[in-house]
Every structure is written in C-alpha cells, then in structure tokens.
C-alpha cells in the first residue's frame, strides 16, 4: 500500500475533491451527517468510488437526505427507487434509509440533535492519531464498535463497526489524513 494519504482515490477527480474538501473535515450538520451515514451504508460490500459516483443520484432519490422527508417516505416511493438504475438497487439498503431516518429523528428528540448523539462517543473531541503511513490506519476502533452496537440496538441498519469508522472519518470525528498530507 502506498504511504500517500490520497493514494486511495487513484487519480479520480471526484474522489480527490472529496479527500481535499470533505474527508475528515469536522461537520456538525445533522443533514450532512445523515447523508454520509446513508452513503456509507450503501457502500457496504462495494467500493466508496462506486457510491461517490452515484452521490447526486442518491441525493435526488432521497430528497437531498432531508431526515424528515426520508423518515416519511412510503413503501411505494421506496419500491419505485428499485427501478432507478442510477442507484444500487438493493432493497434492504434502500429501505434502510427510511429506517435510519426514523431512528435519527428519535435521537434528535433524545439528544437535541443527531450531532450531539454522535459526538458523545468522543466527548466532543476529534480523534487524531497522527498517522505517518496508510498501513497504520485501522478499519475500525473501539469507539466505532461502541457506536455500531448502540446504533444497532436502536434499530439502525448498515452500521457495522467498519462502516461506522468510515462514517466517523467522513464527518471529521476521526482525522486520518497522514501527518504530511496538505489537506490535514
């Protein structure tokens, strides 16, 4: 594996832009966090590249990941998305967006925001391990395992510990840019 922080995007300009402008950048926006949770879940068993190249289609299909609108999607609306070739047509993944939106609404009621719930796992602090080589970056952590367990207990889908670790990177809870990366 290359020791370059951006080696994973393989010259793909869309992924390069994501790496430079979004990946490991702190976000406290519930809508964006929900979007990243859904996209990370959609990537289960697939490459992040596949999902990112369909991101705009997912935004269109799921009302720009409005938590309220996703939570109230009907079975008919979700079934219709099974015919949309711009999405990964996995019924369980498509229906998980509604299920997860409903759980996020419950978390917002309980914690005041989805953001407050998420950041409670790190006491509001960014986890920054100061990696010098990509081989040091883990696929999961004790915190992602705890988050995964809690999310599953609450009924969320596609939130295993590897997915939750990637999710934590995507919203900046974890900064895994290498120490020499200019986008750190």
From TrEMBL:
- One Pfam family per UniProt: Adenine_glyco
The organism's place on the tree of life at top rank? Bacteria
Q: Which InterPro entries match?
A: Adenine_glyco (IPR005019), DNA-3mA_glycosylase (IPR052891), DNA_glycosylase (IPR011257)
Q: Which Gene3D superfamilies would you find in this protein's record?
A: Hypothetical protein, domain 2
Quote the protein name from its UniProt record.
Answer: DNA-3-methyladenine glycosylase I
Q: Which GO terms describe its molecular function?
A: DNA-3-methyladenine glycosylase activity; metal ion binding
Going by the UniProt record, its keywords in alphabetical order are: Metal-binding, Zinc
Protein residues bound to Zn(2+): 19, 177, 181
Q: Which GO terms describe its biological process?
A: base-excision repair
